[in-house]
Write a structure and sequence with these properties.
The chain is about 40% helix and about 15% strand. The chain is of the alpha/beta class. The chain has 2 domains: about 250 residues, 3-Layer(aba) Sandwich (Rossmann fold); about 190 residues, no CATH class. Helix 16 links the parallel strand 10 and strand 11. Helix 3 runs parallel beside helix 15.
Length: about 475
Amino acid sequence: MILRVLAALSLLFGAGLSAAPAAAADPVFTDTACPADWPTGVREVRCGMLTVDEARGGASDRRIDIAVVIVKASTPYRDASGHLLPPMVNFHGGPGGASTPGVGGALRYAQQNPDALAVDQDVIFFDQRGGGRGSPSLDCPGVELTDAGPPSDEDRDGLIACLQGWKAQGVDLNQYNAAVIADDVADMVEVLGLEKIDLRGGSYGPRIEAAVITHHPEIVRAAVMQSPWPPEGNWAVGTPEQVSDAVKIILAKCEAQAECAARYPDMQARFETEARRWLAGPVTGNDGGTFNVDDLSAFLMETTYDRVGVRRLPADLDKIIAGDLSAVAEIAENRTYYTEGQHMAHLCKEELPFESRARLAGGAAGDPVAEVLVPSLSRLFDVCDAVGETPAAAIENAPVVTNIPTLFVAAEIDPGCPPPLTEAAARGYANHQVVIVTNATHGETGSSPCTRAMVRDFLRDPSAPVDRSCLPAADTPLDFTLDPATT
């Protein structure tokens, strides 16, 4: 699932085209100019394009570009044997996010927080094929899409038309998936003359890490997976229950605090009643605005992903029940943060073929909060049925088994990548450590000084237990945002 990319960042960059390749089928790295408005003097930065065949093995002669940015370490660290740490490859979430457009912001942040970027080892930001600053970038302008699926039939139809349009232009959507991206990473390692790399990703990024570990384990020294999505996870099936569980966790934390419980009493039961009302048909708010169950679905998914939204959830649900639908309207204003074609190419290849509509609906049945998510998630199957990608091999949906040292960092409150999914996936990693961060939400685990230090120490010595002393205790109260009391 995605670590949300701010749309404004993508406006800073052009797609860029690489020079002609030296020979067909050979991967080529071409240096390019970095954006002029990136701060200088923070770190040495190298920008470039990796050019590879769209389909390996001579299936076609199409070549594609993948954007890469290399940020050099400020004080390279040597381990106990005197060896420099290998570069760390950073994988974005999604599918359908981007990595390189955020480098400018990361450099600006590092001006004030020098330990936040490329201290011990070089960091390679890598845009997965089909998105970011690469070419093609499989965007679908005007189509809305969230992790809860297309929020309307019109968006579903728009996705189908967009994907069919890319196919008509000669794009082979079967070549945009985790296994092929793992081959891109191996090609990058080869052309840059690297021996080993470390892996780090958040959300759907660990799905790409898992593919690299499965298909090219020889190039990996260690891996860090934050708010991870493993290959064996189900995208649609089970997601409604996970969102409902996240809501239950948040509301239980409210119920355990006297002030929150007094302000928003019996919120779980009250919201379940409200969810049934939305399931029955469109709901009109006090201001006359009308929304439907798909709008509520997107609100629940986005809010339980967001650290601010989590803390406001009891107050927002109280308002929704009272007819103030402004929180739902706010989410409905911006649901276009994916590169939608890249997103759906992955789902239709390596996720939805292993799932079914019947299991999706059956798992949510009887839980009104979970049932809210079913209509929009069901549309994903419509899109994939129409596009007709070839399902991935079974290994692409199987748990990973490896000895590569791996640190898993999961958030306690995560509707997309919940801790039980992380703990189950970690069992196949013989040399693993699992950290669950209390009160954290999806993606939040990658931004705190505590987890940054933990990741840095782990990559310095993947064999040593990480220091968890900076983590909040399991019984730490969640800091809710409460609306002012009324008299």
